[in-house]
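Case 161 in the screening queue. Each case pairs one protein sequence with one candidate compound; here the compound is FE2/S2 (inorganic) cluster. For every case the pipeline is the same: read the inputs, emit a complex structure as C-alpha cells, and attach any notable structural observations.

Predict complex for case 161.
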Amino acid sequence: MTEKKKEKIDRRQFLGLAWLGSILALTGESLAALFKFIQPIIDGGFGGMVKAGTLEEFPPGSITLVQEGRFFISRLDDGSFIALWQRCTHLGCSVPFEEDEDQFHCPCHGSLFDKLGIVQGGPAPRPMDYFPVIIEAGEVFVNTEEAFERKAFDPSQTTHS
Ligand code: FES
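Case 161 output:
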C-alpha cells in the first residue's frame, strides 16, 4: 500500500515537472519571439529610430539609400529632407534609384517615381510612403516605426535642417 502511494506521488511529481517544463519552454519561446520583435527598435534598425548619418553626408539634390532602415534619404535642392520607404506602392517590390534616369524605377512592373517619391508612370496607385525625419545636433534620424501614405507631395512631409 505504501509502495503504491509512493508510486502515485512519483507520477504526480513527474506530471508536475513535465507541466512546469512545458510552461518554462513556452515562456522561453514567447520571450525569444518578443525579443526578436523588439530587437530592431533596440538596435536602431527598421521598425525603430534609424540614424541615417550626418548632415554633410547628404548634399542638396542627393538620393542616398540607408539599407538598414529600408529607406532613401532624398535631400531636396532647398536643403530639406524627405525619407522615402524603399517599398513600391504597387505590389511592394524594392525600388532602386536609377542615377542615369534620375528617378526611382521599380523593376517589377515599371512604376516610376521622382525624387519626392511622386508617381511619374506605371501602375503605382500613390506616391512612395515616407517616414518622419528628425535632425538633432547635426545628425539625421529617421523614425521607421510607421510609414505614412499620401496622395500628393506637401512640404509638411519634409524636414528642414
Ligand atoms: S511592384 Fe512596383 S510596379 Fe509593381
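Case 161 observations:
- The chain is about 25% helix and 25% strand.
- The chain has two domains: 1-43, 49-157.
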